Amino acid sequence: MTLPIYPDLHDTSVFITGGGSGIGAGLTEAFLRQGAKVAFVQRSDATEFCDAMAQSTGNRPLFIACDITDPEAVRAAIEQAATAHGPVQVLVNNAANDQRHRLAEVTPDFMDWALAINFKSYVFAAQAVIPAMQEMGGGAIINITSISYMMGNAGYPIYTAANSALNGLTRSLAREFGPDRIRVNALAPGWVMTPKQLEQWVTPDALAEHLKRQCLPDSLNPEDIAGGVLFLASNTSRAMTGQALVIDGGVVVTG
């Protein structure tokens, strides 16, 4: 699969949370191949990933170690990215954790932790980039959610609730900051075959059953999601805001 080139993304300052693994790694690579200036955060060291990206794309990302549950750390990372690449023009809120849990197992501490990753980090990253976007006359924020809340999936209720909340956040911010030409959209992937999913959850039987529910009989990979994110980040989608773009092979259609 070859992704299209969006000339307006060249030299654009892009900030991605969780950009060194899973879907996030695919997003980082996709923006690097557009010639964008990419900074990303995650907790674990990503030096080897940055080396690999520099070799394969000719464009090295800026890795900043950061705990996204700490709003001040996120703000500092965004300031560091702005110093290196210029004010952030595209924010991709991607970092998430879909740890399985049942309602009976949820404690106040677990709920605080889950919401800090899957919702609050999105809020405070947006809060940190929007003032500069207002000064620049616009920008794009893409919130990666999932189809879990659309499907009413069981097995991780706090994660599902957070994803539903992100849809409301997206629409509210789109309305508030539309006059500043800041576009805010969500992207909801289906079941993407990331290394984590393949290691922890994907079995031949589970995948076969899932593909039967999709309209399209092909499994999803991070590049499929990257194509949608590039579209939402580029001026091609200049008139699109407050929307949720679903890339799931059609499973939501079939239910």
What is this entry, summarized?
With 255 residues, the chain is α/β, with parallel strands linked by helices. It has ten helices and seven strands.
Structural account:
With 255 residues, the chain is an alpha/beta fold. The protein has a single domain (7-247), classed as Rossmann fold (3-Layer(aba) Sandwich). It is 49% helix and 15% strand. It is built from ten helices and seven strands. The protein has helices spanning 22-33, 47-57, 71-85, 108-136, 148-151, 157-177, 195-200, 204-213, 222-233, 251-254, and strands at residues 13-17, 37-42, 62-65, 90-93, 139-144, 182-189, 244-247. It has a seven-stranded parallel β-sheet with strand order 3-2-1-4-5-6-7, with helices on both faces. Strand 4, helix 4 (108-136) and strand 5 (139-144) form a beta-alpha-beta unit. Helix 1 crosses helix 9 (222-233) and helix 3 runs parallel beside helix 4 (108-136). It starts with 12 loop residues before the first strand and ends with a helix. The relative contact order is 0.15. The model has no long low-confidence stretch (mean pLDDT 95).
